């Protein structure tokens, strides 16, 4: 497994570089990235971007069922290279239930969770590996899968989910055992500014 870096590591705040060539080294990196996500436990992850393992490439992997719903079948590893969003919904959502927003977490920000407004759906264009060739395709993602895509794409832009908390005055929660303690707004701001350290 690869080491997952955590805030305030500088690579997490850099805009990642496009993938243009696929060689043996890069193929090995992709395999390790997927393996790291698949084997990550306590907590498990549903996505992992290259910057989170200290490589500034525009690539991430997801581990979701084919349907995109969290609890709907066996998860499948997928790789997204050089992704962009062609279209996004006007509507932003905190999850399916307005009274119980999804609390996003991040393997690079252990034990911290918070609600994040995300587009309900996105149409992504990205490169996929077919053998050792890059083939461009488009796909629409909705609901939870769209949320995961946006979270991982943010990593490629040097953006973290806690940025929304600081900018929009949203709560953050620290996991303590089996419960979540809400952080004060001052602590949220301080945590955010600490994450920007170079």
Which features does this protein show?
Peptide Deformylase, alpha+beta, about 200 residues, 4 helices, 5-stranded antiparallel sheet, 11 strands, globular
Question: How does this structure look, described?
Answer:
- The chain has helices at 24-39, 143-156, 161-168, 185-195; strands at 47-49, 59-65, 75-88, 92-93, 103-106, 109-115, 118-119, 121-130, 133-142, 173-176, 179-182.
- It has one domain (10-195): Peptide deformylase (Peptide Deformylase).
- The model has no long low-confidence stretch (mean pLDDT 93).
- The strands form 3 sheets. Strands 1-2-3-8-9 form a 5-stranded antiparallel sheet. A 4-stranded antiparallel sheet has the order 5-6-10-11, with helices on one face.
- It has 198 residues and is α+β, with helices and mostly antiparallel strands.
The low-confidence parts are: none
- Level-1 CATH class name: Alpha Beta
The end-to-end span amounts to: 26 Å
Q: Helical region count?
A: 4
Gyration radius (Cα, Å) is 16 Å
CATH-derived topology: Peptide Deformylase
- Average pLDDT, to the nearest integer? 93
Fraction of residues in β-strands: 25-35%
The CATH architecture term is Alpha-Beta Complex
Order of helices and strands: HEEEEEEEEEHHEEH
**Strands, total number:** 11
Determine the fraction of residues in helical runs and give it as a percent range.
10-25%
Inertia-based shape: globular
**Major sheet: order of its strands?**
1-2-3-8-9
Oligomer: single chain
Structural class: alpha+beta
CATH superfamily: Peptide deformylase
Largest sheet: 5 strands, antiparallel
Count of the domains: 1
């Amino acid at each position: 497994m690869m080491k997952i870096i955590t805030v305030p590591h500088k690579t997490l705040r850099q805009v990642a570089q496009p993938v243009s060539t696929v060689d043996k080294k890069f193929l090995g990196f992709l395999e390790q990235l997927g393996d790291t996500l698949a084997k990550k436990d306590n907590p498990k992850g549903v996505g992992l971007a290259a910057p989170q393992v200290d490589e500034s490439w525009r690539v991430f992997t997801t581990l979701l069922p084919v349907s995109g719903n969290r609890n709907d079948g066996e998860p499948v590893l997928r790789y997204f290279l050089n992704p962009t969003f062609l279209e996004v919904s006007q509507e932003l959502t905190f999850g399916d239930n307005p009274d119980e927003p999804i609390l996003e977490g991040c393997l690079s920000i252990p034990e911290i969770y918070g609600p994040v407004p995300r587009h309900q759906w996105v149409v992504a264009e990205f490169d996929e590996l077919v053998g050792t060739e890059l083939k461009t395709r488009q796909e629409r993602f909705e609901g939870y899968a769209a949320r995961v895509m946006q979270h991982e794409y943010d990593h490629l832009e040097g953006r973290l989910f806690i940025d929304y908390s600081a900018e929009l005055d949203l709560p953050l929660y620290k996991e303590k055992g089996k419960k979540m303690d809400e952080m004060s707004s001052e602590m949220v701001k301080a945590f955010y500014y600490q994450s920007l350290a170079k």
